[in-house]
Amino acid sequence: MKAPAFGYERAHSVEEALLFYASGDEDAKYLAGGQSLGPLLNLRLARPSMLIDVRSIDELRECTQTPDGLVIGAGVTHAAIEDGAVPGPVGAFLAVIAHGIAYRAVRNRGTLGGSLAHADPAADWVSTMALLDAQLDVRGVTGERQVPAESLVEGPLATKLAPDELVVSVRLPGWSAAARFSYYKFNRKPGEFADAIAGFAYDPERGVCRAVIGATDGAPAVIADALELLAAAEASEAAVTAAGFEPGSFEHHVHAVALRRARDRLIAR
Amino acid sequence: MSTTTPSAKRPFGVGARLRRKEDDRLLRGRAEFVANMRMVGMQEVAFVRSPMAHARLLAVRKPADAADRVFTMDDLDGVSPIVANSGLPGFRSAGQYPLARDKVRHVGEAIAMCIAATRAEAEDLAERVEVDLDPLPVVADMLQALEPGAPLVHEHWDRNAFLETRVDDNLDDVKRRAAIVVTRRVRTARQSMAPIEGRGVLAWFDSRLDQLTVTSATQMPHIVRAGLSECLGIEQGRIRVVAPDVGGGFGYKGILLPEEICLGWLAMKLGHPVRWIEDRFEQLTGNANCREHHYDITGYADESGRLLALDCDAVVDSGAYSSYPFSACLEAAQVSSILPGPYVMERYRCHTWSATTNKPPILPYRGVARTGVCFALELVLDAIARKAGREPHEVRLENLVQADQMPFTNITRKYFDSGDYPECLRRAVAALDIPKWREQQKKRLPDGRRVGVGVAMFCEQGAHGTSVYYGWGIPMVPGHEQCQARLTPDGMLELRIGAHSHGQGLETTLAQVAHEILGIDPARVRLIHGDTAVTPYSTGTWGSRCMVMSGGAVASACKVIAQRVRSIASHLLEAGADDLVLEDGSVRVAGTDHALTLREVAHTWYRQPQRLAADVDPGGLEATSGYKTTQDTGTFSYAAHACAVAVDDELGAVEILDYVIVEDGGTLVNPMIVDGQVYGGAAQGIGTALYEEMPYDDQAQPLASTLADYMLPGATEVPAIRLEHMETPSPLSVFGQKGIGEGGAIAPPAAIANAVNDALADLGVEITESPITPRRVLAAIAAAKRGAS
């Protein structure tokens, strides 16, 4: 299938992108790497009146260490993260996650912000950024705000973002050098979207222990205080039930196994 | 590695691992597929397809401003439905209109076609066509189809079955004697063949020649021409079908397409070129369907596991229509004739049903019915071995046809031409090293996963001809295969054949055959194929037949050319024709250096005829010659597959740890190409085993519409397969070669399922359904636990 006709503008700054949006109609859509939006256009499931291409905006591709943590530009590609664009132990963790996203050709174009805004519940960044307690810096026609990654997703391909809002960067809190992370993804083939995702982030210095259950029907389930879960493998079942999975179902089973294995991995580190 | 090696005088001949000539263009992106072609004035076609599986077609309303760019069946004056009947008794006939008339019978059935300058605009137009459909009760499942009172897909029938077949031995005595009785319900999922290139058709009308040209990504241009002639109602001489480079077929392109008829009609109607390029959505949801089988199968054996009889009821979900030329019954009727596989038994009973449902027509896919049959039978053999308390391969060794029985006629009267099947299995088992894996099995893998081993065997009938096919009574019966060979005035060799290469490497292997006969450098041989205007008739490329049949035809035509070359050269060299030998691109007086190059011989014939003898053979350096095997029951290649797998019993995931194939393809013309064929087939077999499934809901809606939903194996899912060859020449073919094109795809589901079941045996788990997904594995484990408690 081929996409129906649409307008196209290439923005060179965030301001210009917002201006394009403001001057068009509400059916405009931002285009980053196009790895999810492209197929949706061709399948005629997405029918924007105009695409505003944000790939040429340099500021979206920056990655900076701040006193409070990390700021990763929304236009940073999976491949750049895989290749170490994000510094420190968190960057090393993100590199491992990025390596498991689709395959290299997709990673070369797909972006962090694009993946979050697309909001496929089975996508790696949706769960990972919720796990790491990230905040999305978002700018719209009328202003800017922050959206916690944990509450970004409202359902499959549905977010809290307004149509005019562009994810500019992803802000990560300052995980200490002692922090440890683990991630377990269950999928049929390397690179496929996940059947189950689970992760742990434990920072003893800051007294933070978080866990995530991903690849759900909507938002990832974050367990903000996961010390108890870390202490007892048996708690996995209840956590997955609490995340909304039907006990006895295939989905419940594989998510519980994934959570337990993510826990085992964290303990092994 | 193979043991066939080329002779010293024919270094590029039979047995040479010659690099593929066609790869020069294929690997450099210089191939020409239908989607690469552009013609002046060409318009693109998009089809309006049915969103419902079964409905009355009440009305199609064209947009008022574009009514002249939208066409329905009512517009296609003079066009007849596709009719692909079988002559087997009881076959129920139903035609298929290329665009739906009165009713739609599966999702994706074409209802209207729209033209525009680009495909996107044609799709815009297709969206504006309004279709009134009145839903009818849907037949979504093959067992449901056969139940009394089921809604009828074709209302003039009494039952949803294209055909029922019966082989009935009396099993009473066997039932009394059998110490082991194993009954299993086996199911294989509906799959969607996935060549990298989908279908594509470009049609235009040449008013000078008064000829319709249809360029189509097809495996069988001559059959398509015959079908187009029947459906369009014009003489075959006014139709030319061209198959350009074709990016994989596997059976998907071995049929007459409704779209070929539609575009052929359109080109004649409009007078300008029209093109349709199938997209993956159309391919997955409406066009590519294969493999869906259901078996209720019982094996009877003595206490040692020796097979006494098989008793099977098999149903194939044949979909809504009968495809041309193989018909809707080939798959199920084949089940009945090939189920016994390479095993010996006393009695055999098999009933089959070609069930008619509201799904796309089932098409022959690499291995055709063999993949399902092998799966069902090999699962039963493993179950028998478990009951006998023996290693599965040991039970098989005793049940296989033995080398000293060859040639062997089996219980369904299949003629096994040659081979040593037990030796093949022994080698595979040795190569896998089963004792090593049994040790590993006891202690599991370091990460806790279970280990299992599995084996499976099959035989592959290839290049079977007239005597096999006339009995089916389908629109196509293969006879002699022909080749036209011609030396050009500069001494190059042109070979024209009616079959087509869509990945098999025929441009290379047939040049090797020519080299074998004429001594000509393969680089100086051109294969001309895929064009009905310039090639002899052929049923095309299917059934693992080309290396045997086209290879035989090329050898035959080249022998005539050799004789003609000798006739001309004997006068020029003043030597007896019998004293002349052809080698190194020359014709030479044996034992001397007195020689002429083929170029000189050709130059003399064409350009200096004054130098020819008065009584020279007037046929010249061009000959068409036909070929059949000495007996047309088919060559029988065979293989043993053996594998070790890891099973994660918590997540149901399966990983192949080692995979061994020992294959006997007879004499290998190009062992490198054979290796590629086996690897490629095995990759597809792994897809059948573990990944590929086109699920339908109870309204026969396809649930996989992109390759994100329809899972294919990729580089990370196909292990480094270890391949060994046995080379027992076939007594039936010219060099002893056997058809091997399909074999790799046949055994992997059976071998992998047996390995998974072996890994889970102590839990009492037995998977009898493919693909073996995590969901199915976990469900089977859960069911076994429930059963045990």
Walk me through what this model shows:
The complex is a heterodimer of chains A (269) and B (789). Chain A is of the alpha+beta class and 269 residues long. Chain A folds into three domains: 7-53, Uridine Diphospho-n-acetylenolpyruvylglucosamine Reductase, domain 2 (2-Layer Sandwich), CATH 3.30.43.10; 58-173, 2-Layer Sandwich (Uridine Diphospho-n-acetylenolpyruvylglucosamine Reductase, domain 3), CATH 3.30.465; 180-268, CO dehydrogenase flavoprotein, C-terminal domain (Enolase-like, domain 1, 2-Layer Sandwich), CATH 3.30.390. Helix content of chain A is 32%, strand content 26%. Chain A is built from ten helices and 14 strands. Chain A is globular. In chain B, strand 16 and strand 17 (415-416) form a beta hairpin. In chain B, helix 9 (370-388) packs parallel to helix 18 (748-759) and helix 14 (506-518) runs parallel beside helix 15. Chain B is of the alpha+beta class and 789 residues long. Chain B is 28% helix and 23% strand. Chain B has three domains: 23-31 and 480-627, Aldehyde Oxidoreductase, domain 4; 43-137, Aldehyde oxidase/xanthine dehydrogenase, a/b hammerhead (Aldehyde Oxidoreductase, domain 3, Alpha-Beta Complex); 293-467 and 631-788, Aldehyde oxidase/xanthine dehydrogenase, molybdopterin binding domain (Aldehyde Oxidoreductase, domain 4, 2-Layer Sandwich). Chain B contains 19 helices and 29 strands. The A-B interface holds A 1-5, 39, 43-44, 186, 188-193, 195, 250, 253-254, 257 and B 118-120, 123-124, 127, 279, 281, 650-653, 691, 706, 708, 711, 713-714, 716-717, 773-775, 778-779.
